[in-house]
Amino acid sequence: MTDERLERRAAIMRRMRSFFDERGFIEVETPVRIAAPAPEEHIDCPPVTSGGFLRASPELQMKKLLAEGMERIYQIGPCFREGERGSRHSPEFSMLEWYRRGATYLDIARDLEDLLAALDIPGCRRLEGPFARLGVCEAYVRHAGWDPWAEWDADRFDFDMAMKIEPAIRAQGGGVFLMDYPPAAASLARVSPLGVAERWEFYWEGLELANCFTELCDAEEQARRFEKARSARQTLGEADYPIDEEFLAVLPCIGSAAGVALGVDRLVMALTGANTIDSVRCHG
Questions:
Q1: Torsion angles phi and psi, residue 17, rounded to 5
Q2: Entry pTM
Q3: What is 3-280's CATH number, 3.40.630.10, 3.30.930.10, 1.20.58.460, 3.40.30.10?
Q4: How far apart are CA 175 and CA 64, in angstroms?
Q5: Of all residues in the chain, what percent carry a pLDDT higher than 70?
Q6: Model pLDDT, residue 92
Q7: What is the rounded distance in angstroms from the CA atom of residue 200 to the CA atom of residue 183?
């Protein structure tokens, strides 16, 4: 990485922190080594020889802070995933996550729009709106020729997302919120009365930057979803993760909340025009 790109990355980080600090968020730091990752079918956390796993996300630990009474929190820090390597993927990467009690995924979408507008960094591109909003059902009917609600197929959904939906979003250009997922594709999200999971992903010129939920705060339902995900992981021959019983015990204390995970390295890529994730990370 050049010194110039390092300087721009540092400026982006400073501006992000100022954005949240000025809006009453508290910066927190949660453990990187955790005992029980959230079980998700295609996300693998590196095991630690002395016990536990390196986190793929600080999500469960941050929600525990919401349950303790914190209202607005954010964190910027390292996360890890096994088997992810490519121009847009790294086994170690930086994540920004923020959570708000009493908010929904629509509130967090406005937060993101405001954050991107605030990132006016000398020498960097502007990620300017307005940003399009595209429903998942509409996207699949239009670009893949089927309705995931009418005939759910997890493998087909994932394949078409990579091969048809994301290329169509890339061709559209600019920023796009892909919104309202099938419940089976959002294991940590609240399901609305209309039967859609309150989840969105944000893309900039086809590059996925952020993933947001209105958080599921029903412990019994979350436990059922965790067990379903563990069963799917077992079928796929993936490592089993213990259930975070402490998380389930305090989950109802949150009441309602929403949060988002934003890939810092990918955001820096978008702002600086870089083509690879390695070119915007330090390598010592």
A1: -60, -40
A2: 0.95
A3: 3.30.930.10
A4: 32
A5: 99
A6: 94
A7: 12
Q: DSSP letters of the chain?
A: --HHHHHHHHHHHHHHHHHHHHTT-EE----SEES-----TT--PPB-TTSSEE-S-SHHHHHHHHHTT--EEEEEEEEE-TT--SSS--SEEEEEEEEEET--HHHHHHHHHHHHHH---TTS-----PPEEEEHHHHHHHHTSS-TTTS--HHHHHHHIIIIIHHHHHHH-SEEEEEEE-GGG-TTBPBPTTS-EEEEEEEETTEEEEEEEEBP--HHHHHHHHHHHHHHHHHTTPPP----HHHHHHGGGG-SEEEEEEEHHHHHHHHHT-S-SGGGS---
180 phi-psi bin (left φ>0, alpha ψ -120 to 50, beta other): left
Which one-letter amino acid corresponds to residue 262?
Answer: L
Average pLDDT over residues 187-192: 95
Confidence of residue 283 (pLDDT cuts 50, 70, 90): low
pLDDT tens-digit series, residues 46-82: 999 999 999 999 999 999 999 999 999 999 999 999 9
Confidence of residue 2 (pLDDT cuts 50, 70, 90): low
Going from N- to C-terminal start, the domains of the chain cover 3-280
Distance between first and last Cα of the chain:
11
Handedness of CA 66, 104, 129, 266 (dihedral sign): positive
